[in-house]
């Protein structure tokens, strides 16, 4: 249950962040919005890390360099989401983002990419993704 609650919180924050970034983008520019968001996130994470006192920077040597590109992906995510919201609106953007996420996670799960355990996807799960795609088509 805790995982579901955190997923709901994360999903809500992604939506609110997209709207906030779009407003910042309209005033300053899209890349400026990405920079502000990434910087704010870094500062907050740093403060929390200092308060919690989890300082295990030595372990960074164990991290695959590919995964350290998360910040780069974050900047691309922000730019893409802001641009999409400006072009097609919040509802269609978030719906399409969710389908893209589910489709990629489907491929990752069935192929075991990035070191995740291979999982079989069931017909009902595929039907769920198909229904979401149909929903986006109807929304559009």
From TrEMBL:
Membrane spanning stretches: 30-52, 64-82, 88-109, 121-139
Which superkingdom?
Bacteria
Q: Which UniProt keywords apply?
A: Membrane, Transmembrane, Transmembrane helix
Species, as recorded: Paenibacillus gallinarum
Q: Which InterPro entries does the UniProt entry name for this protein? A: YdcZ (IPR006750)
**What is a single Pfam family found in this protein's UniProt entry?**
DMT_YdcZ
Q: What is this protein called?
A: DMT family transporter
């Amino acid at each position: 249950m805790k995982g579901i609650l955190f997923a709901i919180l994360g999903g809500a924050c992604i939506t609110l962040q997209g709207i906030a970034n779009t407003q910042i983008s309209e005033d300053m520019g899209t890349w400026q919005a990405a920079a502000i968001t990434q910087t704010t996130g870094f500062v907050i994470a740093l403060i929390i890390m200092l308060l919690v006192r989890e300082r295990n920077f030595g372990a960074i040597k164990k991290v695959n360099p590919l995964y350290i590109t998360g910040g780069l992906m974050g900047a691309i995510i922000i730019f893409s989401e802001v641009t999409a919201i400006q072009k097609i609106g919040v509802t269609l953007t978030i719906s399409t983002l969710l389908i893209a996420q589910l489709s990629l996670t489907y491929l990752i799960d069935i192929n075991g990419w990035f070191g995740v355990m291979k999982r079989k996807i069931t017909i009902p799960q595929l039907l769920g993704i198909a229904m979401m795609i149909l929903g986006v088509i109807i929304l559009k």
